[in-house]
Amino acid sequence: KHDCKVLVVGGGSGGCAMAAKLSSRLGRNKVIVVEPADKHYYQPMFTLIGGGMKRLEHSYKPMSQVLPKKAKWVREAAIEFDPDSNTVKTTGGNTIKYDMLLIATGLQLNYNKIPGLEEALAIPNGKVSSIYSPMYVDRVYDCLRNIKDGNAIFTYPSSPVKCPGAPQKIVYISEHYFRKMGKRDKINVIYNTALPVLFGVKHYADALWPIVKKRNITVNTRRNLIEVKPGQDIAVFENLDNPAERFEEKYSMLHAVPPMSAPEALTRCKQLINEAGFVSVDQSTLQHTKYKNVFAIGDSSGSPNSKTAASAAAQSPVVFRNMIAALNGKPLRDVYDGYASCPLVTGYNSVILAEFDYSLTPLETFPVAQNKERYSMFIMKKDLMPLLYWKLMLPGYWNGPALMRNLLSVFKFNKK
Ligand code: FAD
Ligand code: UQ1
């Protein structure tokens, strides 16, 4: 029923920014965005909402206000991809034909994969919460206020996640909150992560370990949440190195991070995805490995970078120029270096700004030691980033900090 030059599936961070770039280049109604949600959330704010530093109302705008006026918005979800016939079917029964397809569907939160978890998250005023969903994020601060003593348990699942730093940012914020409220000595702060490490980039992990030691936070690696027993306030973990081994831990509050995957509509289309279940793209050009008129951006991409909005921003000029080149039958020349960034909030006034690339070596913007906790980076995360997101990234003007990094590199002799 619909026809377009470029079809963008998903109007989140990556899809919205790309629709803005593409529709401004290609002109009115050449781009269609398929997106079912009526609200666009600035998800990086959820961590701060969990700590009571921002409110949920600050984190979203109506989708109609952020999607570019020059693109056509189909307010439905994609349910079937058919890359062999260049079409996508939607929930409203539409079939959309495209010349080029951009997949920007983000991640699906699979709370239902952990027995008992959704039930626990539905208990009014309950002890279980999660910053990952706007449905559950307000419960986090409630838990912080309500807990008096016992175990505060925080998890990290056995799946790729968006913003891999966020599950531990909320640990640091909570620990700081307990100290501020004078109840820290009655609460055990426990971080159970499925990962074998505290953080994937050694430069920053080496800075984080002394912080967890100093603040008496218990970190258990390779522990995966497999069940919640809401009636008994018990969380069940498995040892990923020996799955027969189970641990039951009683909680006074449980912060759960759900397992995540690409949305089912996408994973059903086996030709499009890799073994891990994400869009199979060339990690440099972000073009599909088989279908040359298909690209991916953001969290649903199979490129092996950390999944962050900062990554989507850095991918956007590459995807844009390569898509235009492909439309014009030209060779693809733009290369994505795997840039990802994670402002590791370590409390109510400090951030370690991690930035790195595919090789997991630091790729930092500022001419200061970024592996130190800084107030300046906290202000950047809390006050500047939301502005940058709404005013520059979504309208298609923010290409990640590469330009800023290159300009600032003249000051790098200052570093350390
Ligand atoms: P999203 O922005 O999630 O958008 C996906 C869109 O696709 C959604 O609008 C959805 O409705 C739509 N969609 C899904 N299925 C379909 C379908 N079948 N058809 C059509 N549309 C569909 N990043 C940072 O850079 N810094 C941070 O500090 C940071 N902190 C974070 C903290 C938390 C708690 C969370 C949850 C995320 C954080 N992130 C952070 C990560 C960042 O939010 C994501 O990486 C980013 O939003 C990914 O963009 P995306 O476009 O791939 O996906
Ligand atoms: C960034 O570009 C970005 O996306 C818009 C974020 O998500 C909100 C970030 O958290 C960060 C840190 C960046 C990188 C920007 C700079 C200035 C280092």
From TrEMBL:
Keywords annotated in UniProt: FAD, Flavoprotein, Mitochondrion, Oxidoreductase, Quinone, Transit peptide
Occurrences of domain FAD/NAD(P)-binding (ranges): 5-119
GO biological process, one term: sulfide oxidation, using sulfide:quinone oxidoreductase
Main location: mitochondrion
Pfam families: Pyr_redox_2 (PF07992)
Superkingdom of this protein's organism: Eukaryota
Cellular compartment(s): Mitochondrion
GO cellular component, one term: mitochondrion
UniProt keyword Mitochondrion, yes or no: yes
Catalyzed reactions: ubiquinone-10 + hydrogen sulfide + sulfite + 2 H(+) = ubiquinol-10 + thiosulfate; ubiquinone-10 + hydrogen sulfide + glutathione + H(+) = S-sulfanylglutathione + ubiquinol-10; a quinone + hydrogen sulfide + glutathione + H(+) = S-sulfanylglutathione + a quinol
Requisite cofactors: FAD
EC number: 1.8.5.8
A GO molecular-function annotation: FAD binding
InterPro entries: FAD/NAD-bd_sf, FAD/NAD-binding_dom, Sulphide_quinone_reductase
Family under the similarity heading: Belongs to the SQRD family.
Function: Catalyzes the oxidation of hydrogen sulfide with the help of a quinone, such as ubiquinone-10, giving rise to thiosulfate and ultimately to sulfane (molecular sulfur) atoms. Requires an additional electron acceptor; can use sulfite, sulfide or cyanide (in vitro). It is believed the in vivo electron acceptor is glutathione.
Protein name: Sulfide:quinone oxidoreductase, mitochondrial
Species classification: Eukaryota, Metazoa, Ecdysozoa, Arthropoda, Hexapoda
